[in-house]
Amino acid sequence: VQLQASGGGLVQAGGSLRLSCAASGRTFTDYTIGWFRQAPGKEREFVAAITWTGRDINYADSVKGRFTASRDNAKNTAYLQMSSLKPEDTAVYYCAARRGSLHRATTAFASWGQGTQVTVSS
User: Fold this and answer.
1) 89 in helix, strand or coil?
2) Are 111 and 22 in contact, with CB atoms under 8 Å apart?
3) What is the dihedral of CA 66, 54, 9, 27, to 10 degrees?
4) What is the pLDDT of residues 51-103, one digit of tens each?
């Protein structure tokens, strides 16, 4: 499956952004979608993951209560709604896909999008 993330940008602290992850090439409902981020000089880290039904979702503690993952299988698109953004949320955000259940490890996801930059100013 091919993935393309979009929706990043520059926002002030406390603001909101919605990222999109458009999928093509394979049956979207075969895949769990994960969201990850990588800040300069840091390792890529898990943000959220959502199963194909959308009923099972997992979040990193650092974003729980502020970010919401969802998906529209009819549109082959997953979303990450980010609210109450903080400067420490600044990073390149990636979406990724894996066959199977929720997972937090980058190595568990076989397909990756190109990333979209999110910058939160203080």
Assistant:
1) helix
2) no
3) 160
4) 999 999 999 999 999 999 999 999 999 999 999 999 999 999 999 999 989 99
